[in-house]
Amino acid sequence: MPLQRCYNDSEDQFPLPAHIREQYGPFGFPTPRDAGRPYVSSNFVMGLDGRASFRELPGQAGGREVSRSKEDRWLMDFIRAHHDAQIMGASTLREELGRDSKGWDYAVADDELRTYREKALGLGRTRVIIVTGSGEVDLSFRVFNSPRVEPWIVTAAAGAQALQTRLKAPGKGADIKVVSVGEGSIVDIPAAMRALRQEHGIRTLLCEGGPTLYGEMLNRQLIDEDFRTLSLQVLGKTTKPPIERPTTYGHLSYVPENAPWFRLVSLHYALPYHAFLRVRYEGPRRFEA
Question: Is the distance from CB of 156 to CB of 133 less than 8 angstroms?
């Protein structure tokens, strides 16, 4: 793991193996500013121009194509290992299909980190939560059938109704947990966060996309910190208009008075093409003229 540390001001909370601590430094989370919901982190990879996906290119839409970094893959597992659950939008699931069109299971793949999660941290299978208002997800995707993860679906009333019959079919969805929050086909994201913490005991939650889900959570001040892999390349504009290559921040728009700021918590790098930032949400800031 040729990961290099520039700066680390993290809380020292977790019992990291000595050789990981030596390279990465301490790791932990602060006391949540809102005890009624999970402490929410996000993890994205992006190019120098902020774009996160070659969205219009079949089979090349995922973050793996943007990163191409062994260190980023290890850090993704490292971050996942420390969270109770992961959450992502259904569009991310549909876009990142992989070579066999069944997608990924989003489990901690590194054997050492998986053992550390289970034995040192006392955490079980990774809970992977898919957000879909309509309930229109392909239940044959790997995430819903992997023994390494515990699949959940967060949906709204219409989505829960649509899923009800499908999940009762033999061999379909027996292990999928459905949480319904919201009317019609619109998921009430703040209410979902409260339900995940207060009814299901999820203390730390990792958002892994996509930009639309992340953008809504940031706009509602539900993001506490970000992990950002900066891949030193420029993705540029789409090759097939009107399909846009998204930035990690979706379609958010701010003015100087309300633009959210983040404070640097740690900075690592892997020569010669990647930098890894951890930043913590502070909200709008005022500066002297």
Answer: yes
Amino acid at 145: N
With beta carbons less than 8 A apart as the criterion, state whether 200 and 178 touch. no
In angstroms, the CA 28 to CA 119 distance is 17
- The neighbour count for residue 97, using CB atoms within 10 Å, is 18
pLDDT per position as a tens digit, 151-184: 999 999 999 999 988 887 665 556 899 999 999 9
Strand 39-46 and strand 204-207: pairing? parallel
Q: Tell me, which fold does domain 31-252 have in CATH?
A: Dihydrofolate Reductase, subunit A (3.40.430)
Kindly report, residue by residue over 41-96, the tens digit of the pLDDT.
999 999 999 998 888 887 777 777 888 899 999 999 999 999 999 999 998 888 87
With beta carbons less than 8 A apart as the criterion, state whether 178 and 155 touch: yes
Distant-in-sequence, close-in-space partners of 122: CB < 8 Å, separation ≥ 6: none
- Distance, CA of 85 to CA of 89 (rounded, Å): 14
**Whole-number Å distance between alpha carbons of 195 and 36:** 9
Sheet holding 149-155, edge to edge: 4-8, 261-270, 274-283, 225-231, 39-46, 204-207, 85-89, 126-131, 149-155, 177-180
* 93-123 confidence digits (pLDDT tens): 888 777 787 889 999 999 999 999 999 999 9
Crossing angle for the helix pair 211-219 and 189-198, to the nearest 10 degrees: 80
Q: Measured between alpha carbons, how far is 23 from 191 in angstroms, rounded to an integer?
A: 39
